[in-house]
Queue: 3 jobs
Job 1
Amino acid sequence: MITYDFTGRHAVVTGAGGGMGEAIARSLLEAGAAVTAIDLKPQPESLARHEGRLTYYTGDLADPAFISDTITRAGEAHGGIDYLANVAGVLWFGRDRSVLEMDMAVWDQVFAINLTAPALTARAAVPFMRKTGRGGAMVHFSTIQWYRGDPNPQDAYQASKAGLCALSKSLAMQLAAEGIRSNAICPGMTVTPLQARWDNDETLAAVAAYAPLGRIGTPQDMANAALFLLSDAAGYITGTELPVDGGLLMRM
Ligand SMILES: NC(=O)c1ccc[n+]([C@@H]2O[C@H](COP(=O)([O-])OP(=O)(O)OC[C@H]3O[C@@H](n4cnc5c(N)ncnc54)[C@H](O)[C@@H]3O)[C@@H](O)[C@H]2O)c1
């Protein structure tokens, strides 16, 4: 078991009311960090025992003013920000389709949440990373889906997540000289509320069998990768994408 020590550090985690974000926020809290968590959904029960180091904001990341106000408050309260985990995202089955036919209002909403919001959280957090004088690190949650074409297209999801990898790389280049790192995680199939469609044992077994490692990913698998990329153990890693997918990309 690898343990990290984030004592005295402050992390901002979006999507902390969902599967992966909750696991990342909880893992950072267990490793000693102070965490500012953000989600549309209310605070998960599992975070309650760390309330001394947790500040939980409920609000809409599609609202630029909410992002700016929340991150400024968080940065000022803690005297800086060390880490940013952009985990919030949406995949709207049924409504997110081929760009040749889908409602472009849906496209705009998906981009606002999956790409503009991470851009704005980074924009708000970087001045507070500079303030600490010890650099910083970001992880942005994309998907392995962006590497391929899809016979059942979800074009807004795919394009916004590709954009997020590009944004991560650009931020990495811009901020490297200041010791601020930026990397993307590309999850494979992971059991979370986002994948509520896998609602029976037969489907879950079929999904598991499709991954070369023979199981579905867990939120903790993603948290393990995120904590590594945020930690000093990844101090020489920036501007890259890490697939965390049980080997699925080999098959795509
Ligand atoms: N689960 C998978 O199989 C999978 C695969 C690849 C990538 N991902 C990506 O991983 C990330 C985490 O996904 P997850 O599986 O934990 O999903 P999830 O649905 O459990 O969590 C996402 C969270 O984002 C929050 N959110 C969405 N829109 C928001 C908004 N406008 N304002 C504030 N919060 C908002 C939701 O409330 C939710 O709690 C997402 O970016 C997703 O696209 C997931």
Job 2
Amino acid sequence: MPILVTGAAGFIGSHVAHALLDRGDTVIGVDNLNDYYDVTLKQARLDRLTARKGFAFVKADISDREGMDAVVRGQDVRRIVHLAAQAGVRYSLTNPWAYIQANLLGHTVILELARHLPNFEHMVYASSSSVYGGNTKLPFAVEDRVDQPISLYAATKKADELISHSYAHLFRIPLTGLRFFTVYGPWGRPDMAMFLFTKAILENRPIQIFNNGEMKRDFTYIDDIVAGIIATLDRPPADDGKTPPQRVYNIGNNRSEDLMRVVGLIERELNRTAEKQFLPMQPGDVPATYADITAIQRDCGFDPKTPIDAGLPKFIRWYRDFYKV
Ligand SMILES: NC(=O)c1ccc[n+]([C@@H]2O[C@H](COP(=O)([O-])OP(=O)(O)OC[C@H]3O[C@@H](n4cnc5c(N)ncnc54)[C@H](O)[C@@H]3O)[C@@H](O)[C@H]2O)c1
């Protein structure tokens, strides 16, 4: 019974696929390998996966209905980890269509797929901490109101939660949305701050710090995220015949770090001082994130183990090794 992982060439998806293979599952990975960021990084992640027994890759677009039907035809797929999406807040201001295509149309295609799988058991899909928008009550709790998104990216992720709820209600398919909080680590995403800072410092370029450095983020190490995704996947929400079998959880580190402290840690690891360009807040961005993870701890035993002081050096080591700097 293969597990379908969408976004398998992506940062989180590739790690999830490895972890599933490690425990003996077979995986069908899907990705369209789009060029939102360096395709050679996506291909390098994929090469490590395709070399492993139990992994099959299909290059496909999740918004392609016939293409996705063909991916699962004749396979007894019962579980799905759906991570393919157009990520990133800033890019949603310049290319809205990519978000509509992947996050709205693509998400619905995957739900339709799940709905028609004869032995479907559970799908875990990616939401985002960005759904909390400009909320000021910290930490962010799943019970908080999240109907005032401040970017199209956030709006599509919230829409995914709503569409999923309707599918769980109508078709009684078990669905769990995970609101990820700033995930980082080896094989990370080149559009994210930790990666951008490391790259710029090593290339002797200034780093751009928004909101004059007054930013706080709940940084979550990739291994903790992967453990949480798999623990959640193994615990589908039950259907009591009344409430729809669906849940949404925060998945974060439950610590909010000052961005300037993180910059300091990167400088220390690289043994260099960054030239810092302080800039105003970027449109669509939020000043602070901080995850209340009580629900996922209680229901799935999620237990993040990696403080940023331990995780960041692992990212830097990978970066230096991969890019040979
Ligand atoms: N990394 C984070 O901190 C973070 C935070 C919040 C939410 N998320 C969400 O988690 C998920 C995974 O994020 P990530 O950091 O691994 O991003 P990523 O961009 O590295 O991975 C996403 C993958 O999906 C693929 N993809 C995009 N559109 C597709 C399409 N239409 N069809 C098929 N494949 C497509 C991309 O090629 C990419 O490989 C995303 O849904 C993202 O929105 C991530």
Job 3
Amino acid sequence: MNKENLENSRSVLAVDIGGTNIKTALIDSDYNIADEIKSKTPTTYEELIDYISSLYNNDINALSVAIPGGYNYDKNTIFAPNLTILNGKNILADLKNTFKNIPILIENDANLATLGEYHYIEKAEINNMILLTLGTGVGGGVIINGKLHKSHTSTFEIGHIISVDNGRKCGCGRYGCLDEYANLHALTLTYNELSNTESNLSPAKIGALVDEGDLIAKETFYIYSKHLAKAITDLINIFVPDKVKLGGGLSELSKYYLDDTIKIINNDIFPLYKGITIVEVASLKNKAGVIGAAVNYFKGS
Ligand SMILES: [Zn+2]
């Protein structure tokens, strides 16, 4: 416990609900982090609400929650293909039972990672930025002229644009979504397709095979680069951002695909846009969700 440091400052309880783990932290307006906890995401919605509610205390000035799905601000509804216990629930109403008199903010986790990276790492010194999260699912967010783009709902479900016609079935119901070719599981599927096996190789293990000179592993990452480059080229052709940043677990393996991705983008991009957008790995790593949630409270979006 490290609450003493935070006692005299405003602090937000930041909660990052993931498909596998839930991370929580108490964060002050200087982004000092205390009471960081990571545990397995509860398997039922009721247990999830009980868990978050158990973290209530009088020092908290706000609750800011990152969810792994789209959020409708008008109706307070969620669609979360990778954490279906949230679907159809009104998490705002259920958290208000405990967090009665303080602001509660709910936002898509990739949108929050974008917001966190933009304010906390980039210090809002660029105007336009896109972040893609490459993890259990593929998400993202876009900053346009210094603001996170929003509509009636959270936006930028980039994982659900089509990468392959009639391709792999996606959790959203469509076939061939980018998510199925760029998420954590995609590399294993591609490796198995190429090698005609049913291995359970992790992305890190496939990377290790590249280091050992395995040609199938190398081709697996090249195919990954092609799917990613196709999506990023389209995004640059639309937004021409200052930066496209890659976050999420697979950004840690970027040495196996980033150079090829950038090469393909430079080859395919609308010629006038060449050389404007920097494509690089994000800096916030596994704290992106909680820092982003805190930024959403202290800076707004
Ligand atoms: Zn989809």
